[in-house]
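[step 3/7] fold_predict: job queued, chain A
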Amino acid sequence: MAPTIYDTIYPDQLARFPSLADWFIESISFVALAIAILTAAVALRANTCHGWAIGAGTTFAFAYTVYDFVVLISSEQEVNFLASAVANIAGGVFVSMVYYLFAAIIIRLSRSSLGRATYKVLIGGAILAIGFLISLLSLMLLIVFYRPLQAPLEMAVPLPFDGWVRAKVRSPDENEPSYTNRFSAVPTGAKSKEVEISSPHEAGKIAWLQTGRGSKTKLEVYALDGCAGGMNPSLTEPPAMTMLGVSSLSVDNGTSFISIRSPKDYKLWSVISEIAYLSVSPNDTGGLDIFSSARPLDRLEIEASDTVEILVSAILLTFGDEGAVSPQPQRLSFSVDGKPVAAVLSPKGGVNPKDKLKCSQLVPSENLDTTSHGQPAMISTSSLAGGLFFRLTPEPDSPYASTTSSLSVVETNGMIQASLLEMRAGSDFGDADYIGTSGAVRDVSVYGLQMSGGIDRLFAVGDFDVFLGPDKALRVSGEASALAQSGQRLNRTRWEFASDTVRWGALITAFGLVATSAAFVRRSIKGRVRRSPLWFFKTRGV
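[step 4/7] structure written:
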């Protein structure tokens, strides 16, 4: 692609512009106001039209050159002083010409009826008018040449997909569940039997709630030794805690790994509130394997209809100076129907951090439900990993009782991994305002035009709907306010979109206006010099 006017200023980035109101508000800075006041004050001291113009242009150029020099010597900001000085001089000449043009017009229109004091008032008003018009013209030209237009975008991303996504923030709707208001790493209608969250710190806080009627839930809690991510404990001993008729469970802190399972598949949503890494790949069941990053404002939502098993574990070590590793006890706190329970997992002395973990059930010396007065149960482990396993088993009162429950994980932190069962075409991931791909993209349509050739490393900012296509590819549909492929901008500016006829017409019109204004100034000066050769040196008169 040939270089454009846009590329001369923003060769490898996207320009952003404020609204018209913000433009004028931001333009009234202290420096701009100070230079404007100084320019007006110097110009109005003169008593001739050309004196006003020369005073304004000279003061303008000199003041901005001094400001650029101060910035150069007093800050780390890179300033091309020579280029700035040349630009300031050119700007001073332009200000002088425009100022003279306005002043001459005002004087000609009011020569027969107004006095010199009135002239100065009008000239002072002209300063404001010139500043306003130049600022407005500058914004219009920047918009025409440098503001990319919204680009209607359609594209397909073949699986596996690896990239970054940011949720489109929408106003909450009281009539809809909270998870429908944001982008989800898991598409609508997705079902799974296991999801895992892992983090080097806190993986998240868990809240389980029985929602079905006519059913009671039995809670069993087992202590675990050597269990971390992806491990299945063998439970052969009685649980460390058993409770009947449980309606709520929450796990508050201490977890670096969370696994949620069920014999039957459950509905799953993984809600993204900020920008997140997302990986989507097909699996052997006809579904999708999801791997995404999680941040504190994200959350996981689950709706189950059968037994729910929750494994939480912690790494029982801490890192010291220069990477030194030492054992570190960890407190796991949870609540059952509002009743707080806690356990402190502590590795035994002599544990070797290099020993391979082996997940097994641990029989503590005391039952968790016998702890009292807020004192936690002390559980010793033979490895540097330990945790708790919660089994929530519904016990319906009748064949018609509901066994449904809901579970959420909030303040998530780390990575979420889920294996989804068979997915249907059209399953919606939700709305996103940023998508960045690291692999190939096909069927890309921008402004209704199909792009040919290989497309990769594409990023888009705007408003998009992301869903699963019939070909098991991620489909993206929407409008992009910023769109680039491998660092090359794809959405065009108004100038680039215009036809050659429009461009030539605009250039001829602009050149004609400048030429007409210059001719007027030249004719005015030439006539005055002819009538009075020393006119330029006059200190009074117009």
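[step 5/7] annotate
The chain has eight helices and 28 strands.
The longest helix spans residues 500-531.
exit 0
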